[in-house]
Design brief:
It is a single chain. By secondary structure, this protein is α/β, with parallel strands linked by helices. The chain folds into 2 domains: 349 residues, no CATH class; 175 residues, IlvD/EDD C-terminal domain-like (Glucose Oxidase, domain 1, 3-Layer(bba) Sandwich), CATH 3.50.30.80. Helix content is 37%, strand content 14%. The chain is built from 22 helices and 16 strands. The strands form 4 sheets. The protein has an 8-stranded mixed beta sheet with strand order 9-10-14-13-12-11-15-16. β7 and β8 form a beta hairpin. The chain is globular, with a radius of gyration of 24 Å. The protein starts with a helix and ends in a 12-residue tail after the last helix. 57% of the residues are buried.
């Protein structure tokens, strides 16, 4: 099928907009690649240091005839999604050795858990951790001893940070290896009900803790479709995962076999062989468009709106919010996974998962098929399912029908003709709204605002019974310059209660919501942010805002707002405690969120 006209025109626009920066990037990558295998440029002393601890692999490393894989790992055992990575380096080394190559742990990168820091001061470091991860990946690969890299990471800022690092070393082939989601626990909708009852005082902390522990209960990624699982989708849609790797549970034979196959493939695509596939050739404009299509078709995380812009810039590609919105308008919403539905990612995977979606979208002309992936040219294998036969992975055709149309539907009969995200523009600035989980009757709201400096103050007003009429809650000075742009997910239960009481309510903020943002309409990532002089800094209680998700507009209707002096809150407390002192330079130099909220790109 011919490529969809909107997808084609947006791609062409991105290519033209990015021509200068992309050409500069590729020129640098080609120059680096022409220098040949990295180890050839090390002195004998350099190499001796790098190989001193490598035991039986020393001779192979010195001979320089086989590929050496650098393992960049985000392992820690505080983060459930990353705990399985503890055993991956030994497995990767063993498989590399069996295939004539070698592997070394190049370095570790930090991996913080937004679930732990949600609503806590530590969340103010979360977004900036992405850039720290990119920097740490750069340090890991700077030893110049690797012919390929494998990247072990799953969650919110970790994969975007690793992609930025991989793009910076784009002349090196790289494969992303996931750990998979934990098995299904307490259903997410039941957990959400307990959270709402706790917000209203109907249940105590003991019941809340019981529900949370039953939901987050074992190694693996959280099972809702938030940022972590949106990351995994993105890596598969963009060709940096092995096909079908995203949602296989940890500790299974298939999970280990996929990791082994990824290791073997990493050795096959180095410059030492005949199938050299550097990351820079995979991460092109068409790959990013495919990733955006996947984000819209699955109703993915709003956090990826920020991350994908930063990832693209690391590869010399200039994305704009208008690109995301236009792609969303042409992409059908094919999946209903919590918070957009009742199913979790395990149910989604069982219903057909990403391979079904990629096959459907490609055949409908909604994805570029003429792309390079870690498996070669085109998306054929990504529309098939991995099968384990005699200990080896093969990819086989799957049934071209959904196994559960309450979770996954074909392009011809989607849940919605448009994707889950939409750009908002107006005199208040630019923002984004996730509408895939918001009922259509809540897509438009015009109401007076209540202005708050943070989410704690909103909760206090709620407990005091102050929300009795239709209200647009404005939470400002939550952008990257103000305090690092923490997620405001703690507001979801509170605002959901108001919605359930029949009030029209919405959130407007220059901050972020969680990747699991739910049914409350939320205009987020508003830019310019308050700390950068945005109009949101001039709002006062009682001003009228109209949020129209259908038209994609966000307008202040009250006259004279522009002429006011902006609010000047005391932000001095944002600069210290729980490590915030270390990030002052980040807050001063970070770009706006519509430019990726980036420090290093």
């Amino acid at each position: 099928m011919a490529l969809n006209g909107t997808i084609a025109s947006v791609t062409d626009r991105i290519i033209e907009r990015s021509r200068e920066t992309r050409d500069t990037y590729l020129s640098r990558m080609r120059q680096a690649a022409e220098e040949g295998p990295r180890r050839a440029h090390l002195t004998c002393g350099n190499q001796a240091h790098a190989y001193a601890a490598m035991g039986e692999d020393k001779d192979a490393l010195v001979a320089e005839k086989a590929g050496n894989i650098g393992i960049v790992t985000a392992y820690n055992d505080m983060l459930s999604a990353h705990q399985p990575f503890a055993t991956y380096p030994d497995l990767i080394k063993s498989i590399a050795r069996k295939n004539g190559g070698t592997a070394q742990v190049a370095g570790g990168v930090p991996a913080m858990c937004d679930g732990v820091t949600q609503g806590q001061v530590g969340m103010e470091l979360s977004l900036f951790s992405r850039d720290v991860i990119a920097l740490a990946a750069g340090v890991s690969l700077s030893h110049n001893t690797f012919d390929a890299a494998v990247y072990l990471g799953v969650c919110d800022k970790i994969v975007p940070g690793l992609v930025i690092g991989a793009a910076t070393f784009g002349y090196i082939p790289g494969i992303f290896i996931p750990a998979g989601p934990m098995p299904s626990g307490l259903p997410n909708d039941e957990k959400t009900e307990v959270r709402k009852k706790f917000a209203t005082g109907e249940v105590g902390r003991d019941e809340l803790m019981k529900a949370e522990m039953a939901s987050y209960h074992s190694p693996g990624t959280c099972t809702f479709y938030g940022t972590a699982n949106s990351n995994q989708m993105l890596m598969e849609f963009m060709g940096l995962h092995l096909p079908g790797a995203s949602f296989v549970n940890p500790g299974t034979e298939m999970r280990d076999a996929l990791t082994a196959a990824a290791t073997k493939r990493a050795l096959e695509i180095t410059a030492l062989g005949n199938d050299y596939t550097p990351v820079c050739d995979i991460l092109d404009e068409k790959a990013f468009v495919n990733g955006l299509v996947g984000l819209m078709a699955t109703g993915g995380s709003t956090n990826l709106v920020i991350h994908i812009v930063a990832m693209a810039r690391a590869a010399g590609i200039q994305l704009d919010l208008s690109d995301l919105s236009e792609i969303s308008s042409a992409t059908p919403l094919m999946a209903r996974v919590y918070p957009n539905g009742l199913a979790d990612v395990n149910h989604f995977h069982a219903a057909g998962g990403l391979s079904y979606m990629i096959g459907e979208l490609r055949d409908a002309g909604l994805m570029h098929d003429d792309v390079r992936t870690v498996m070669g040219q085109g998306l054929d294998l990504y529309a098939r399912e991995p099968k384990l036969k005699n200990g080896e992975i093969t990819w086989e055709d799957q049934a071209r029908e959904s196994q559960n149309e309450k979770i996954l539907r074909p392009v011809s009969d989607p849940f919605s003709p448009e994707g889950g995200l939409r750009q908002l523009t107006g005199n208040l600035g630019r923002g984004v709204i996730k509408i895939s989980a918001v009922k259509s009757e809540h897509h438009v709201i015009e109401a007076p605002v209540r202005v708050f400096p943070g989410q704690q103050e909103v909760k206090e007003a709620f407990r005091a019974g102050e929300f009795t009429d239709d209200t647009i809650v404005v939470v400002r000075f939550q952008g990257p310059k103000a305090n690092g742009m923490p997620e405001l997910h703690g507001l979801t239960p509170t605002l959901s209660v108001l919605l359930d009481r029949g009030l029209k309510v919405a959130l407007v903020t220059d901050g972020r919501m969680s990747g699991a943002s739910g049914k409350v309409p939320a205009a987020i990532h508003v830019a310019p942010e308050a700390a950068a002089g945005g109009l949101i800094a001039k709002l006062q209680d009682g001003d009228i805002i109209r949020l129209d998700a259908a038209k994609g507009t966000l307008e202040v209707l009250t006259d004279g707002v522009e002429a006011r002096a902006p609010a000047t809150p005391d932000l001095s407390g944002n600069g210290h405690g729980v490590g915030r002192e270390l990030f002052e330079t980040f807050r001063q130099t970070v770009s706006s969120c519509d430019a990726g909220a980036a420090v290093v790109v």
